[in-house]
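Weekend entry, working from home. Most of the wet-lab plans are on hold until the incubator is repaired, so I used the time to fold the two sequences that have been sitting in the queue since the last round of cloning. Logging both here for the record. First:
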Amino acid sequence: MKRAFAMPGFAIGFGMAIVFVLAALVSFVWTPFPTDIVDVPNKLHFPDAINWFGTDHLGRDIFSMLMVGARTSIAVAVVAVGIGMGLGVPLGLAAAARKGSLLDEIIMRGNDLVFAFPALLIAILITAVFGPSAVNAIIAIGIFNIPVFARLSRGAALSLWTRDFVLSARVAGKGAVRISAEHILPNITNLLIVQGTIQFSLGILAEAALSYIGLGAQPPMPSWGRMLADSQTMISFAPHLALFPGGAIVLTVLGLNLMGDALRDLFDPKINRER
């Protein structure tokens, strides 16, 4: 961690991301104003000393909605990445352990099939059956993350199966499952952390996109994407409605991408040797 914080990209990205994480955590116990109460007489107020980011078309405090919206975005991204990593990594390790077998072909062709359907299309298919909700957005994003982690795990594991320490483990009588768990997985954890950070930022972006078109979190639950959708018809006379949720999305994704790039450089042995 000392080496990571010594890298400007990681320190800046971490600082940007932690602000929104703290805002999400604080929103569980406190927000400046309730987000579920409509106050029409105070609608479309510009930022002032009372409403720091102004109010929306229903008189709700935008700063409070951003805090609760951060909670929604982070929760969706965390669970979606957890689904992708929890299912994709074992599939990738299994495919690498049985390279060239029927199991390998089934797993990789299944990944190709999922990749053929973008997360947005998967979300449309799911919501057409079960209806729009944050849970269905999580499922859609999580399904799309599975082949990402499966391919990464398989590619990284294949390069390790020919290494001497793995061959020694096989000579010692260890099976494929035990070798994958004890020797392969620990050696690809760094790659998974980097990819997880990147997919986390993409998950926040995907959740905002799904909410923007009405397939994500539903009212009265605040969502950055739906705040942008609500502001598009009023942006000419109330630009703050789009400025603040749009800025929250940009800064959060940028911070996570800066962290991911810094971690990739940190874990890359070639770059470390050059330094």
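Second, folded right after the first finished:
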Amino acid sequence: MPPSEQARWFAEEVQPHEPELRAYLRARFPSLSDVDDIIQESYTRLLKAQAEGGVRSAKSFLFVTARNATLDLFRRRRGPPVFAIADNAELALIDETLGLAEKEEQAYRLEVLEEAVRALPDRCREVIMLRFLDGLSYKEIALQLGISPETVKVHMVKGMRRCTEFFTARGLLQPLTAEKTEVSA
């Protein structure tokens, strides 16, 4: 794309979303002090992807990229992860029909899921993996681990709650408000 055409595309398709992007970042990440840096990084990634022909929706790509750049920043500040990432060959492959932004989003969510499961206590992690990876029932898990089905249920609830908290802390889920919990009760 010639520079003048790229500048026109940027001015028409990207720049009008900056105020909304700023508001989104401030609302989603209130502790973020580097909003300008994140926006510039997002623009850089967007322009690179556009040059490679991978952007179908500038707004969607911009928002996903800004969120990912913010999460990258928080991860760098937090330091190296406690657990090494294992070979994820057994995990589902990313659908090749997805766009670049969707692939990045799916890969990130998979990485966070791996971290969340690794952060669980040993027995809780065992129960979660037997249930979701091996597809065992609560009774089958109880027999295999030599515990009661009720204990399996307790570990499942604990594991799901901790994974939900893990995702919420990383901005992948909205925190439950009192209003939402009353409606679902």
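Plan for Monday: verify the second prediction. The radius of gyration is 20 Å.
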